[in-house]
Structure formats: structure tokens, C-alpha cells
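INTERNAL AUDIT FORM
Audit reference: QA-55
Scope: verify that the stored structure record matches its stored sequence.
Auditor: D.O.
Record contents follow.
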Amino acid sequence: MSSNFANHEDPRITRTRNLIFNAYLELLREKGFPNLTVQDVTERAGINRVTFYSHFADKYALLDFSIRELFRQEIEKRGFNACQYSVDNLRLLIMAVCEFVSNAHANCSSSDSETQFKSLIETQVKSQIQEILQMWLEQVDSAADLKTITTAASWSLYGLILQWNQDKKKKKLSAEQFADQTLPLIMVILGETKQPAVLSVK
């Protein structure tokens, strides 16, 4: 899997970071995060440890970067960063986050690393959900407190998705069903700045 980094970055830096990133993704699928080491990544990427540490402080810094990059790619692939705010797009966003969180958590079984792994996922995903929601609302609403409201919506949504992910095997609630169930609640939070009548399905 390739990655597209900053356009103005030195091509050599981009190339090396891509090697590290892609090696990490391969190893993550093979070994899971708790069993993955910096040595594993450097050997797979064909670089030395000095080169690795010139890009990332440790495997957690690489994890933090990779989560943001992977979620950004998912958002761009689905076009959420370019579309307008609508009920349907909000529902699709909820489903996308469900799938991303479920897949990300599947790569961490158990160990002392699990808490930090999940904490990094939470920080990055909540931040990007908030950015998307604020971008959408700014297109149709000039309220001064959009950041507070979109932050509340992103935190609420992420918390509900964590609960869904924990319960999904037992309750067998699909991402689609969960999105339908959760959508009205998130709309109520966002509706404090935007009346539901203004929302329109694309």
C-alpha cells in the first residue's frame, strides 16, 4: 500500500517514510502491534535504525502517524473531504468510522501496549471526525461555537462506536444498523447550530 505525503517534502524523505510505513503495515497484519518491534520494521524496510529514528521517535510515534494517514486515506477515498454536509453523508461517515475502528482494534489482541494503541486510535480518529464535521458545517453555518459542537459530536460518536465494537459479536448489529440507530442522536447534537430542515439527503 503506498502513501502520498506532503507535496513539498524532499522526495528522499518521502521515499524513506513510505518504505517505513509500508513495512509497518505488512508487519502489523502479520504480527499485530504488541509483537512488532522497530528492528522488525527496519529489517523489512531495508534501512538502519538511525534512519528510522530520524523519522519516528519509536513504534508508537509510527503508530500515531500511520493511524492518521490511514484514516485520512479512507476519508479521501470516500470523498468526505470534498462533499457537502447531508444526512446521507453523515450516515456514511458513521459507517466508515465503524469499519475503521473495528479493523484497527482487530490488530491489537492484548498486552500492555493495548491501552496506548487504542488511545492513539481514539485521539486521531476523533480529531479527524471533528475536522470533517466542522468543515461541513462551515459551508452552511457561521455560528461562532462550531468547534465546541463538532467536538461534542465527534466524542459522542466515537464513544458509541467503541461500545458497538465491543458488543457487535454478541448483538450482531451491523455497521449499517448502528448508523441508522445513531444518526438521530448525532443530528440532535449538530442540530444546535443547524436546523434539521436545512439538512438534505444528497
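Auditor finding: record pair retrieved intact. The radius of gyration is 19 Å.
Action required: none
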